[in-house]
Design brief:
mainly alpha, 19 helices, 0% strand
Length: 406
């Protein structure tokens, strides 16, 4: 009976009305009682995993995320944490687990948006259980979800809290990098550590193992883009003097992989990486690095990689970064003068379609009712996706291009 009631609630609140827009059709006075009844029916102290009840809870939270009347607090979060405690060692229903973590992430994002200082309370409620999932043998089914949550919490901060510091030694152990379902989430978490705790990583030292992870990922055709994500974050977020010792080896590793088994994804990731490097640390250092590796290497990179492959970059921010970096190279390097006519058409193509300002739409609507494989190992939590940031937000590529074409 509980399942049928949950199905009815979930179906009712996700009914599409005119113009195919999801309606917030639970009036304020009904929100609390409905959510309270669903949480009670969930029976947090049992190991039963009713996916219909959990999905209904997730839908109520998702569709009312922006509703100021939604009655959620650390107590609501604690109910879901209690349920997680009961099932994390031997979960039986992947769909239940997914909606449980979607609900936890939704409540967390709501509370942090309402009051950023609530993050301390959220972490005090969730952290002990999340650490058990990550560290206890045989309890790693939910690890990809946990890594996403921890990443979100760290990305919300400017510094690395003490409670996170012991975990870095666990994260760089091979076991977490041998499971393909873990890789996108644990990579994001490593990036969050780099972003908030570069000083700690240097003093540990934790940077060397992370560079080893980069090398392993870049060697993989399936996961090379994740390796570039890590090294790009290091380039953007760490002081140059911290990782400068590794720069020659980083480029040698990348060029060895390109020479051995080049792919469009690999080259695209490399072009975006060197563009971020130029934006962050300037053209002079970049040109010097390539010159020290091999004479005329810059020209070879642009002729054999940038010109043939840069059009494969589709992300708007990445296209803008590639455009700005190339314009700066044209401005600062005479080595590219002879191939400028070949570069300019691709440069113009990069700039076409780039909006003057790039924003991220954070509004979440329920996913489609097509079948999703919740047991595939990695499923993105929609409420805590990492927002994209534009490192060139104050630069107009079209205006900058005029400085090298006039």
């Amino acid at each position: 009976m509980h399942s049928y009631a949950a199905i009815c609630i979930e179906g009712y609140i996700t009914t599409k009305r005119e113009r195919q827009i999801y309606q917030y059709i639970l009036v304020p006075q009904n929100l609390g009682p409905v959510l309270e009844a669903l949480l009670k029916t969930l029976d947090p102290n049992s190991t039963i995993e009713n996916k219909y009840i959990m999905k209904a809870i997730s839908r109520v939270l998702t569709l009312n995320k922006q509703n100021p009347h939604l009655p959620v607090d650390s107590g609501t979060l604690n109910v879901l944490k209690t349920k997680l405690e009961k099932i994390y060692k031997a979960p039986t229903n992947p769909e239940f687990g997914y909606h449980l973590f979607e609900s936890i992430s939704c409540i967390s994002s709501i509370l942090i948006r309402r009051d950023p200082s609530s993050l301390d309370i959220i972490e005090s409620v969730l952290f002990p259980t999340l650490m058990k999932i990550v560290t206890e043998a045989g309890s790693d089914v939910f690890s990809p979800f946990v890594f996403q949550l921890l990443s979100y919490f760290l990305e919300t901060r400017n510094t690395l809290p003490e409670i996170y510091k012991p975990l870095i030694k666990e994260l760089v152990t091979p076991i977490h990098w041998e499971q393909s379902g873990n890789l996108p989430a644990v990579t994001r978490l490593i990036n969050a550590y780099i972003q908030t705790g570069s000083d700690y990583l240097v003093s540990t030292p934790g940077l060397i193992p992370i560079l080893g992870i980069f090398q392993k990922l870049v060697a993989s055709k399936a996961n090379d883009h994740l390796g570039f994500s890590i090294i790009q974050t290091i380039v953007e977020k760490m002081p140059l003097n911290v990782f400068s010792f590794a720069i020659p080896d980083i480029f040698k590793i990348i060029f060895t992989r390109i020479q051995g088994s080049k792919s469009i994804k690999l080259v695209r990731s490399f072009l975006v990486f060197i563009s971020y490097f130029i934006i962050t640390h300037g053209t002079t250092l970049f040109i010097e690095i390539l010159r020290n590796l091999q004479s005329n290497l810059l020209l070879m990179v642009i002729q054999s990689l940038w010109i043939p492959y840069v059009d494969s970059v589709k992300d708007k921010i990445e296209r803008k970064v590639c455009a700005v970096a190339m314009i700066k190279l044209l401005r600062d390097s005479m080595d590219l003068a002879e191939i400028r006519p070949q570069i300019l058409p691709h440069l113009s193509n990069l700039i076409v379609g780039i909006p003057t300002s790039i924003t991220i739409n954070e509004e979440i609507v329920p996913d489609s009712e097509t079948e999703k494989d919740y047991s595939s190992g990695y499923t993105l939590l929609s409420h805590i996706m990492k927002p994209s940031t534009d490192p060139c937000k104050d630069i107009n590529p079209s205006t900058l291009l005029q400085t090298v074409t006039n």
